[in-house]
Amino acid sequence: MTHSIAIIGASGYTGAELIRLLATHPSFEIKALAANSKAGQSLAQVFPHLRHLDLPDLVTWEQIDFAGIDLCFCALPHKTSQEVISQLPKSVKIVDLSADFRLRDPADYEKWYGNAHVAVETQAEAVYGLTEFYRDQIKGARLVAGTGCNAATGQYILRPLISGGLIDLDEIILDLQCGVSGAGRSLKENLLHAELSEGTNAYAVGGTHRHLGEFDQEFSALAGRPVEIQFTPHLGPFNRGILATAYLKGDPQAIHAALTTAYADESFVEVLPFGETPSTHHVRGSNFCHLGVSGDRRPGRAIVVAALDNLCKGSSGQALQNANLMLGEAETAGLMLAPCFP
């Protein structure tokens, strides 16, 4: 069975990644591409690397006839996304890649994103989109809220360890580097080549990064009490990829065993042999997440490193993985592309 797909926000990086992945999907067909700022242009004009695909020209989202659309990916910025999604037909399934529906409490959304939520009723039906942990809820959902890319990376490390009671919940440090594509495609002075290349810098220091809202929500629910981690992201001079290092108080061998067991049957999360650590080189352009565990010179301390592609497993690949579940397709459909190396 062929499913008709629309993408709103098709001119951004996550939109382009969705198109790239959907191009090889056996049963999804792109019927509409919307990008209000690029309406009237062909896909080749906006993304020359996709010119080989026979796809419709870009339109405004208001011009899409949703009567024939089974599922819509919404890859708009936060705040804009909730305004658009609240107007879409209830018959259309939606995977949202923005931050607008990730936080269950509207007060938390206002705290972290600085504006009141304008689609509270729609927000109430959203299912959090970390596929490996919300699979059953995602299958029956109309609206799935994709996670933040940083939030996904940290959760792949920490969720099984918090659930298993294997680490000190008050001694969690997460240090993360993300490629510049994680900041989106809009022109920003600090992202100019001369400003970014040949160096790296921390940002949102001191517990201010918005993805902490997701960490607080998910980890506190798992633990049954408030959990607040220390988290510092860094902007790296590379295009795509996330490398996260967690410093934990717990037995490293037990941590490795728990992660190995937790992900034993997962198609996209691989735990490396004890002592090996992953690289962003080995997941680039793919829907895979690699985890590595090492001990420390201090007994009872562990280091866990995670690598994934922020545009794929951290966003668009995750979105497609969820869409497969929502439409009854194989979860891996369109997603088994090998990483691009070197």
TrEMBL record:
Catalysed reactions, semicolon-separated: N-acetyl-L-glutamate 5-semialdehyde + phosphate + NADP(+) = N-acetyl-L-glutamyl 5-phosphate + NADPH + H(+)
Keyword Metal-binding: no
Annotated Semialdehyde dehydrogenase NAD-binding domain residues: 4-141
Gene Ontology biological process terms in this record: L-arginine biosynthetic process
Catalytic residues in the record: C149
Pathway: Amino-acid biosynthesis; L-arginine biosynthesis; N(2)-acetyl-L-ornithine from L-glutamate: step 3/4
EC number: 1.2.1.38
Keywords: Amino-acid biosynthesis, Arginine biosynthesis, Cytoplasm, NADP, Oxidoreductase
Location in the cell: Cytoplasm
GO cellular component labels: cytoplasm
SMART domains, sorted: Semialdhyde_dh
Keyword Cytoplasm assigned: yes
GO molecular function: N-acetyl-gamma-glutamyl-phosphate reductase activity; NAD binding; NADP+ binding
Signal peptide annotation: none
Enzyme type, top EC level: oxidoreductase
Superkingdom, taxonomy of origin: Bacteria
Functional description taken from the UniProt entry: Catalyzes the NADPH-dependent reduction of N-acetyl-5-glutamyl phosphate to yield N-acetyl-L-glutamate 5-semialdehyde.
Family: Belongs to the NAGSA dehydrogenase family. Type 1 subfamily.
Protein name from the UniProt record: N-acetyl-gamma-glutamyl-phosphate reductase
Organism: Mameliella alba
